[in-house]
C-alpha cells in the first residue's frame, strides 16, 4: 500500500515506536491519542481496505475513489470528509504552469486519513511541522486538518502575490508598447482562473470547519479564523487581478480595432486619391480625343472633301477642335473631375 506515513500521536507528540498499519488505529485507541495515515496515489483496492478498517460510508468512499470533487466539508455521522484543492507551479520562471491538486482528508475523533495524488507534499510539510511542535494548539485530528488548510492557504497567497507581480509586468509592457501583449494577458488570465478555482472556495470550507469546533477549543477557532482571513485576502486579490486583466483585454481589443480603423481610413483616402487621379486622366483623355478625331478625319485627304478647298476650312477646323475641347473641359470641371 502506498502509505507515505502511518503514525500514532499521543501525549502531545508522535509515538516513537513504529506501528504496523493493521494496528495503528488500535494502538491510537490504547494510547488515548489519534492515528494519522497519509496515502499517496492509492489504488481503489487500497482505498477500500482503509474504508473497511474505518467503516466509512459508501458515498464517501466513492467520492475519494472517483476524485474530481469540488472543495467541500461533508459530515457523515461522527466522520467528516474534507476536500480542498491545492495549486502548485510546474516549471520555472514567468512561463510556469499552475496545476491544481486535490487533497482529501477523512477525520474522526481518533484518526485522520489524508489522501493525495501526484506526490503532493502538503501533508508531509504539516507532519514535519507537528513533529517540531504546534503549541499552543492541542494535537488532534482537527488540528491536522487546520494545519493542512493553513499550509494550502499560505501557498495560494504566495502564488497569488507572484501572479500579481507578473500581471504588473504585463501591465507595464501593455502601456509601453504600440502592440498590446494579448498572449501574455491570456496566459496571466489562465493562471488567475486556475488559482481562483482553488482559492475561492477555501474560505467557505474553513468557515464550515470552524463551526464544528467545540467551545472548549477557542485557540483552534482563532487559528482557523486567521486561515479564513488569508483565504479571503487571496480571493480578493485574485478577483481584482481578474478584473484588471479583463479590462486590459477589452482595451487591447479597442486598440486593435482603432488601429484597423486607422489602416482602413488610410486605405480609403488612398483609394479616393486614386479615383481623383483616374477622373483627371479620363477627363483629359476625352478632351484631347475630340481634336484628335477632327484632325484625323480631315487628315485623310480624300478628294471629295469640300472643306479642304474651302477658304475658311482651316480656321473652321481649329475652332471646332477648340469648341469641342472647351465644352468637354467645362462639363468635367462642373462635375469636379478637374
Automatic annotation (TrEMBL):
Belongs to the CorA metal ion transporter (MIT) (TC 1.A.35) family. One of its GO terms (cellular component) is plasma membrane. The chain crosses the membrane at residues 281-300, 312-332. One of its GO terms (molecular function) is cobalt ion transmembrane transporter activity. It is a multi-pass membrane protein. It catalyses: Mg(2+)(in) = Mg(2+)(out). The lineage of its organism: Bacteria, Bacillati, Actinomycetota, Actinomycetes, Micrococcales. This is Magnesium transporter. Keywords: Cell membrane, Ion transport, Magnesium, Membrane, Transmembrane, Transmembrane helix, Transport. Mediates influx of magnesium ions. Alternates between open and closed states. Activated by low cytoplasmic Mg(2+) levels. Inactive when cytoplasmic Mg(2+) levels are high. It is found in: Cell membrane. It comes from Agrococcus jenensis.
